[in-house]
Write a structure and sequence with these properties.
- This protein is 26% helix and 34% strand.
- It is built from 3 helices and 8 strands; from the N terminus they run βαβββαβαβββ.
- A hairpin with a 5-residue loop joins strand 6 and strand 7.
- The protein is α/β, with parallel strands linked by helices.
- It has 2 domains: 1-58, 2,3-Dihydroxybiphenyl 1,2-Dioxygenase, domain 1 (Roll), CATH 3.10.180; 65-120, 2,3-Dihydroxybiphenyl 1,2-Dioxygenase, domain 1 (Roll).
- It has helices at residues 13-24, 47-54, 74-84, and strands at residues 6-10, 28-31, 35-38, 42-46, 66-70, 90-96, 102-107, 113-117.
- Strands 1-4-3-2 form a 4-stranded mixed β-sheet. A 4-stranded mixed β-sheet has the order 5-8-7-6, with no helix packed on it.
């Protein structure tokens, strides 16, 4: 068995692809009409398909998991996020954990939780 990556549910693959390209540099590998594979093991699937497959509704902003990234220049990352996506909803602004790591948490345009921290 091989772990392939993480799938997140989105309303529009095209909109999500643009966000993840703009903010994190992901690139499209494969587009299967509502299902996209991106570099780095990230998969996007449109909610209309996912709901059909699991026969349940989607709960965005459920705070049960997050995508975690590291960036040594976190101030520049936050500035870029604010400039490109000013409507971003933050869970917490830039903060410092007790172990010294600085992080920011926010939701992507589809309500998936993201954390960006300085490398530890």
């Amino acid at each position: 068995m091989k772990y392939k990556g993480t799938l997140i549910v989105v309303e529009s693959c095209d909109r999500a692809l643009k966000f993840y390209q703009d903010m994190f540099g992901f690139e499209l590998i494969k587009d299967n009409d509502g299902n996209m594979e991106l570099t780095g093991g990230l998969y996007l699937q449109e909610a209309k398909y996912f709901e059909k497959f699991i026969e349940k509704g989607i709960t965005s902003r459920n705070n049960c998991a997050e995508l975690y990234f590291e960036d040594a220049d976190i101030e520049s990352f936050i500035e870029k996020l604010q400039n490109l996506y000013p409507e971003t909803e933050y869970v917490n602004g830039l903060m410092t954990h007790s172990w010294g790591q600085r992080v920011v948490r926010f939701y992507d345009p589809d309500g998936n939780l993201i954390e960006v921290g300085i490398p530890i």
